[in-house]
Amino acid sequence: MIAFLIIFIVIVLWLQDWVLENSPQAVEVNFWPEENVVDPEDVFNIIVELKNIKSFPVYFIRVNMAFPKEFTVASQAKLTATRKLKDGQEISVSTWLKAGQSVKIKVPVSIADRGRYYLPNPVLYFGDFLGLKQKKKETLYFREVVVAPKSYGSDDVKQVLGKFIGEYSVRRFIYEDPVLTVGFREYSGREPMKMISWKQSASKQQLMVKEYDHTIEPVLSVVLNVEMAGEKSAQLIEKTYSVARSVCSNLEAKGISYGFYNNAQMLGGTGDMHSVDDGIGMHHFRKIMERMGRGMHIHAFGCDVLLHNAQKATGNERGLIIITPDTSALPALSSDGRQLILNVTDC
């Protein structure tokens, strides 16, 4: 009987060592934000996916994530434990996996300030079924989330914008051909060949078609400038981003198609981060919010180049809404009523 008990204990100890040794290789881990572009202080989920690819169970897994101080873990998070860090907070979630099973863990968080943020990599701890030992597995992935600017809350911007749109619509209807080429968009396959702009297609490296406006509704370009001739003011430039968001939100609410141009240096991103073609709707709005969220406080090129690019892409008949921290960097502009300058210093 004693010999049988000894053999049993030896087998159990060997089995738990074997399971602990092989558990890290058995579990694949991935994680991502539920949304890539979020609003300030809005709660979004970070999804951590664990998958057991082996034919034996993994009895204990603890997932640790050390969030920097910019992140706030929501109160509704289902956590095993939390621990305060010097510059943030560490959270822990424990689970186990049957053979071939996968689970998704949701960690709700929020971020208060505009910007691009890296997500902390999860660290996995595996334990034997007796709870005597543990083994660590670290991950190294690149995951990020972009926080859009807050909307500027003043009614002054809305009133000035509404007046400009009204005057611009009337002027355009009286003095210009109401059937205008107001911009270009991607070829969907449904448009006739005569609508294709070969010059724009060559420039964009994809088929682009002319977009016509048969009504008196304006199509505008929002131009965001961060260049300042004087001393840089982070607070003023943050306010510039907020005013720009407010302008875009108002155009969305009015159902007005618009393009977007900016000259800020960007934190990451792919493709042309300094312009967004004409459009409207949530997808279009989120593309612009991503660029605003990634934008830095320094300019990639001057305001004169920015305005030249916007006018070159959209034509001289296009109305421009120029948002700038001050007017010191703006070149001389025509007085034909096609430009609205929102000087954030005066807002």
3D architecture notes:
The chain is an alpha+beta fold and 347 residues long. It folds into 3 domains: 26-147, ntegrin, alpha v. Chain A, domain 4 (Immunoglobulin-like); 155-178 and 218-346, no CATH class; 179-214, no CATH class. Helix content is 29%, strand content 35%. The protein is built from 6 helices and 21 strands. It has helices at 2-26, 155-175, 198-204, 234-254, 282-294, 303-314, and strands spanning 27-33, 37-38, 44-52, 58-68, 71-73, 81-85, 88-97, 102-111, 115-118, 123-127, 134-138, 144-147, 180-186, 208-213, 220-224, 258-262, 264-266, 275-279, 295-299, 319-324, 339-343. Strands 6-7-4-10-11 form a 5-stranded antiparallel β-sheet. Strands 18-16-15-20-21 form a 5-stranded mixed β-sheet, sandwiched between helices. A 4-stranded antiparallel β-sheet has the order 1-3-8-5.
Layout: helices, strands, pairs:
Blueprint: H1 2-26, E1 27-33, E2 37-38, E3 44-52, E4 58-68, E5 71-73, E6 81-85, E7 88-97, E8 102-111, E9 115-118, E10 123-127, E11 134-138, E12 144-147, H2 155-175, E13 180-186, H3 198-204, E14 208-213, E15 220-224, H4 234-254, E16 258-262, E17 264-266, E18 275-279, H5 282-294, E19 295-299, H6 303-314, E20 319-324, E21 339-343
Parallel strand pairs: 2-12, 15-16, 15-20, 20-21
Antiparallel strand pairs: 1-3, 3-8, 4-7, 4-10, 5-8, 6-7, 9-12, 10-11, 13-14, 16-18, 17-19
